[in-house]
Amino acid sequence: MHEMSVAMEIARIAEQKLGAQASMLCTVAVEVGDDSGLEPSSLEFCLDVVFRTPPFTGAKPEILRRAGNVLQVAYLEIDDGCPDD
Amino acid sequence: MAVRTIEVRERVMARNDELAGGVRRRLADAGIVALNLVSSPGAGKTYLLEKTLAALGEELDIAVVTGDVQTQNDADRLARHTTRLVQAVVTGGACHLDALQVNTALDAIDLTRTRLLFIENVGNLVCPASWDLGELCKVVLFTVTEGEDKPLKYPKMFQNAKYAVLTKTDLLPYVPFDVALAKVNARAVNPALEFFEVSATNGSGMEAWFAFLRGLVASGATV
Ligand SMILES: Nc1nc2c(ncn2[C@@H]2O[C@H](COP(=O)(O)OP(=O)(O)O)[C@@H](O)[C@H]2O)c(=O)[nH]1
Ligand SMILES: [Mg+2]
């Protein structure tokens, strides 16, 4: 039931890491333990909404299911829009 | 396109836990014992606190922070039983209190004349289990009309609590509820759980609860 609070905290962490690059975020990967007390599909829905809101521009959530009670931001992917070299 | 990966590996609860650590230090410095009361809505948190304030409010210098999704009703109910300020936190939709809200609420409380702090959490047997508020321990209330199986259905709350209070025991003659089975279920998820059985309505078991609170405050156990 507290997936929205968790999604907003994840957005805060991402914004802190990325600063001005937040708008380039394309993937946010979160490890969610089976005993974390969170419903993964509900968290995914909330992340999807939160990461459409400025400064973000529609990053895709990726939920990585884990055993135990882990709940952490695993990694962020940013797309700088430049062609591959 | 060039996609770059940034490793983060940061616990989502890290910030709340840091703030909770700050609350814990603040309480320890002031010598305050803090209990975080959790339960489903209507299990009797506010009524138990009303009776506790009436009996021990002055003796143990009790202060209360109470959280609800909407309204200050509980704070108003509690204020009738104490001369102290009862600090209400309206979460505006959130299903739990967090450490930042408690830290802010403490600013309004005279900590120098407080020895026992109750935090009445938002009624919810799921979410408050995940948020450390800086309390000494969680006390989970559950009531005879909820059924004996609630500890099995909501294990995390019972695992994270140190004490369980079975409430509304005056209703036992009217509902099929097996107290022994409820305890077996609770101890299946948390063998160390200690039990109280109370009726705030007829006073049964309240002396044991009061004696426990007196002992806790006398022991000065703040962490
Ligand atoms: N019969 C009975 N009713 C109680 C008892 N404790 C609380 N109640 C009632 O249960 C309802 C919910 O209590 P309340 O304290 O508001 O629960 P909270 O939501 O956990 O704070 C109220 O109508 C109370 O009067 C009790 O010991 N016996
Ligand atoms: Mg209440």
Secondary-structure topology with pairs:
The complex is a heterodimer of chains A (85) and B (223).
Chain A: H1 3-18, E1 25-33, H2 40-50, E2 60-66, E3 71-79
Parallel strand pairs in A: 1-2
Antiparallel strand pairs in A: 1-3
Helix pairs in contact in A: 1-2
Chain B: E1 3-11, H1 14-29, E2 33-38, H2 45-56, E3 62-68, H3 73-79, E4 86-90, H4 99-106, E5 116-120, E6 137-143, H5 150-153, H6 155-160, E7 161-167, H7 179-189, E8 194-197, H8 206-219
Parallel strand pairs in B: 2-5, 2-6, 3-4, 3-5, 6-7, 7-8
Helix pairs in contact in B: 1-4
Features of this protein?
heterodimer; A: 85 residues; alpha+beta; hypothetical protein PF0899 fold; 3-stranded mixed beta sheet; 2 helices; 32% helix; 29% strand; B: alpha/beta; Rossmann fold; 8 strands; binds guanosine-5'-diphosphate; binds magnesium ion
Could you please describe the fold and organization of this structure?
The complex is a heterodimer of chains A (85) and B (223). Chain A has a single domain, classed as hypothetical protein PF0899 fold, CATH 3.30.2320.50. Chain A is 32% helix and 29% strand. Chain A is built from 2 helices and 3 strands, in the order αβαββ. Chain A has helices at 3-18, 40-50; strands at 25-33, 60-66, 71-79. Chain A has a 3-stranded mixed beta sheet with strand order 2-1-3, with helices on one face. Chain A starts with a helix and ends in a 6-residue tail after the last strand. The model of chain A has no long low-confidence stretch (mean pLDDT 94). Chain B has 223 residues and is of the alpha/beta class. Chain B has one domain: Rossmann fold (3-Layer(aba) Sandwich), CATH 3.40.50. The interface between A and B is medium-sized, with 31 and 25 residues. Magnesium ion is lined by residues 45-46, 74, 120 of chain B.
